[in-house]
Amino acid sequence: MNKTTLFHKLVAFTTSVHRVTHELTKDAKADHITSVQYNILELIAVSQPVTPSQISDCQHLSLPNTSRELKKLREKNLIEKVGDPEDGRKQHIRLTKEGEQMMDKSFQLIETRFLNRIQNASKEDLDEIDQAIDILQRKLFY
Amino acid sequence: MNKTTLFHKLVAFTTSVHRVTHELTKDAKADHITSVQYNILELIAVSQPVTPSQISDCQHLSLPNTSRELKKLREKNLIEKVGDPEDGRKQHIRLTKEGEQMMDKSFQLIETRFLNRIQNASKEDLDEIDQAIDILQRKLFY
DNA sequence: CCACCTACTTATCATTTGATAAGCAAAATA
DNA sequence: TATTTTGCTTATCAAATGATAAGTAGGTGG
Known about the structure:
The structure is a homodimer. By secondary structure, the first copy, chain A, is mainly alpha-helical.
């Protein structure tokens, strides 16, 4: 296996992943939030509670801009902010009930589309997919 | 293999793919072009020649906005436009010499980072990665 | 030939996003 | 205790992006 050949394969592969991700997630976000806001909500949903700094790091967004978007999300009642009792500078962000519901709805739509995509896969196919993901996760996308 | 479990795994996986893609490609684009423009150039580089309509479809960009960005890229001498001899409405877009050079430079940087990432992988690892990509490409990200 | 459709362009406007400066309070450090 | 650093916020400006209307020229089918 030539490494440069593998690289070209990787390029094609990541392109496919991006394309399929887009197909699965398109229109999954409510109209009243922007893409950046949706990405932030996704991050919070998966790993709440998070601090603005963590969001800033993960989303490659400056802290001022992160702060601005979080403020907008708070005004929409999708997230809430709790001060850290140990460190008065830190803030912990989590979804509100309303935010949870909104994200649940999005995730469900995405999952439905995913299930639809693999509906014809056999049990063996699913096992293969599962193992392939493990390998790539461990050896390439760590 | 439970399908919902697999779905959660896929979510984590695509997140990793996006993160690593970002690591490999960050700052790969020249400063004087925007991300949207870079993505367009990448598409052209990989599948030239392409028509504005094709670019519009693949990049999920309206035709007017595609046209605007292509105009900017033409003004920067990175792409050129050739009319279709059979259908006077169509345009074929390809990279100029300068555009090719720019994209080559980007791709080389990305490849270097990729090689660096897999430098410790054994021959067996590479074969496994190769096969795993094939499986996912065929059964999930088609 | 005429109406309609396709491929693309130009123009314009609102919104989103990115970048930067300045400020504040809490915590760490000297 | 004075100074610096950290975590976050507010404000402001420029640039990028998205959406839409309107126009041109070439093609297609009646």
